[in-house]
Amino acid sequence: MINVSKGWNEKQKNLGIFLPNQKTFIKGINLLLEMHSLLHDKKVYKISSETFYDNLWENMKEETCKIISNKKTSILWNIWHITRIEDIISNILIGNKETIFNKEIQTKLGIKVKDTGNAMVYSEIETFNKNVNIKELKEYRIKVGKLTQKIIMALEFSDMKRKVEKEQLEKIKQNGGVTDDPKSIWLLDFWGKKNILGLIMMPITRHQIVHLNDCFKIKQKYNK
C-alpha cells in the first residue's frame, strides 16, 4: 500500500526550497517533474517503471472503483476530482489557457458533472460511479498529465511569484469548474490567494498524493 511517505514529504519540502531560489530553480523543476510523473500513468512521461498511479490500478476490480468509502468518496470520484482540479489549475491558472475538459470529453465520459465534485452528495457520487466511462476517465487523466508536463517545462523563475488574476478565476466559473454551492465556490477564494509556486505546492503535488493515498486505502479494504 502506498502512503504519503516521509520520502514524499521530504520531496515536498525540497520543492518549496528549490523553486523560489533562482540558483536552485532548475533543480526544483526537475524534482517537480519527477513528483508529477509518479502521480500519473507511466504513458505520460513515457517511462518503463510503474508509478504510484499505475500501482493503484494493478489488479483493480471494477466494482472496487465504485465502492463509496466511509469518507463518502470512491476511487473513481477521487480520480475525477484530482484530474479535473489539475486540468483547471495547470491550464487556466498556470498556463493561462483553456482546460482540456470540453463537451466532447464530457460526452465520452458519460457524465453530467463539469465541476471538481467538491459539493457532490452520496447519491450524486453513486450516479457518477455508475455512469462514468472508466477507460475515458483514464484517457482524460493522461491528456491532463501530458499537458501539465509541458506547462511545467515552460515555467521560468519569474513565474513563481506571479499572482492569479480575477479574469482567470472568472474563467473557471464559466468553464463549469466550480458551482455556486458553498462547498465548491470557496475554491476560487482559496486558489485566488496563491501565486504559481503556491499552486504547484497545492494542489498540483500534495493534493494529488493525498487523494491517491485515499484510493489505496479503499483498494486495500475492498479489493478482495
Describe the overall structure.
- The chain is mostly helical.
- The chain has a single domain, classed as Four Helix Bundle (Hemerythrin (Met), subunit A) (Up-down Bundle).
- It has 12 helices and no strands.
- It has helices at residues 6-18, 25-38, 42-45, 52-57, 62-65, 75-94, 103-109, 122-131, 134-153, 166-175, 182-192, 196-222.
Helix content: 55-70%
The CATH topology assignment is: Four Helix Bundle (Hemerythrin (Met), subunit A)
Shape: globular
Characterize the biggest β-sheet: none
Calculate the mean pLDDT score and round it: 96
Architecture (CATH level 2) name: Up-down Bundle
Radius of gyration: 17 Å
Strand count: 0
Compile the SSE list and pairings.
Blueprint: H1 6-18, H2 25-38, H3 42-45, H4 52-57, H5 62-65, H6 75-94, H7 103-109, H8 122-131, H9 134-153, H10 166-175, H11 182-192, H12 196-222
Helix pairs in contact: 1-2, 2-9, 6-9, 6-12
What's the quick description here?
The protein is mostly helical and 224 residues long. It is 65% helix and 0% strand.
